[in-house]
Amino acid sequence: xxxxxxxxxxxxxxxxxxxxxxxxTLPLMIASLLTGETLVLDxxxxxxxxxxxxxxxxxxxxxxxxxxxxxxxxxxxxxxLHISAAHIVDTTAPxxxxxxxxxxxxxxxxxxxxxxxxRVSMPGGCAIGTRPVDLLIMAIERLGAKIDIEGGYVIAQAxxxxxxxxxxxxxxxxxxxxxAIMAAALxxxxxxxxxxxxxxxxxxxxxxxxxMGARISGAGTSRIVxxxxxxxxxxxxxxxxxxxxxGTYAMAVAMAGGDVLLQNARPELLQAxxxxxxxxxxxxxxxxxxxxxxxxxxxxxxxxVTTAPFPAFPTDLQAQLMALMTRANGTSCIVETIxxxxxxxxxxxxxLGARIQLEGEKATIEGVERLQGAPVMATDLRASVSLVIAAxxxxxxxxxxxxxxxxxxxxxxxxxxxxxxxxxxxxxx
Length: 429
Ligand code: UD1
What we know:
Layout: E1 3-7, E2 12-17, H1 22-31, E3 38-44, H2 48-59, E4 63-66, E5 79-84, E6 92-93, H3 95-98, H4 108-115, E7 117-121, H5 134-142, E8 146-150, E9 153-157, E10 166-168, H6 174-185, E11 190-194, H7 200-211, E12 215-217, E13 223-227, E14 235-238, H8 243-256, E15 258-263, H9 271-280, E16 283-287, E17 290-295, E18 304-306, H10 318-325, E19 331-335, H11 345-351, E20 355-359, E21 362-366, E22 371-372, E23 375-377, H12 381-393, E24 394-395, E25 397-401, H13 404-409, H14 413-418, E26 423-427
Parallel strand pairs: 2-15, 3-14, 6-7, 10-11, 18-19, 22-24, 23-25
Antiparallel strand pairs: 1-25, 1-26, 3-5, 4-5, 7-9, 8-9, 11-13, 12-13, 15-17, 16-17, 19-21, 20-21
Bound molecules: uridine-diphosphate-N-acetylglucosamine (UD1).
Uridine-diphosphate-N-acetylglucosamine (UD1) binds near residues 26 and 131.
């Protein structure tokens, strides 16, 4: 297993190119199941999760072709995928695959909408809590699918197709909203989705579906209306930039100090996080090239933050912010309201010298003057990257173990940080 070695204390300066968003790429790839024609996706990040979903879709008979390099293209350009689900050969998504990546459960919606049936393994627990799928099942049931649960599998059937209906989510869910939109796109009649998730990736997927011939309005707001169509066609779509990667590197610069342009980043995708960074003492300047983050010499101020659905501060940046606050000049407070048990990074940050107290969903972080490098490991991808951020400001050497978590969601992390002056290397294991 690979590890990452970091020696802290170096400021960052230069440019970090921001990749396409993982959390848009995954549902966009899954949306390819809705059509027999080719879907072309540009700006796709090179991530382990993308490769895994390619295998999962392959199991259903989907062909995924990765476009070759064009003249002048570097690793900083995303890849292009040509995805064709002309022949769906299997409507079962087995446990061995679904248990490796929760989002693969979402194939249930396009499969039942287009093929009239789907048999998808329940994802099971994961490192950040129970993460149930009851609301995803409710959504397709509301559109007329008959649901059975047998041997750990959800079996959805709609032999005569799905029918439009009203879906009211009792809780905001990103996966639930993606599922509802994909199912409704091919349903007979109109679907209204209330209390929909407003994350930018929802609007990105809806844009792509509309290019494929869907009739979706209101994506990006909490009320989405989908007029079902009989069939969808091919399209070409450019994946939006990754706001979580953007926020992560912004926190890394705030932590290490320096001045970095986050190229292609879009400020409207992470306004809440940028405001928090400014309150903490970082300078944030947006331009048509991206977002510039700088902190030169000033101390970090403590902040109080509560995670909540978009447009509020994202749970996917909670661990990174906590790492940053370990060095603040005072006491910060972070409340996690989305996932229980998403504090796996706390004990590892403490190993580096942080002072953090946990009480239910609330973490109190008392800033310290110095962190000290140590061997650490983490059990999910956002937690892993928070340890990298802490290590950038720690004295001496930190070894981050279990790097495969990072590879799921961060493209060439050590390369991007290394090019800005960080002492960071991958140790092949
Ligand atoms: C997506 C993101 C993930 C992010 C999360 C919250 C992708 C691939 N993943 O995950 O990075 O952290 O949104 O922004 O886009 N819930 C239920 N029942 C359900 C579904 C969800 O109770 O059927 C609960 C969850 O336990 C959680 C909350 O709803 O407490 C939000 O989860 P959800 O938005 O669905 O997260 P994901 O779509 O899995």
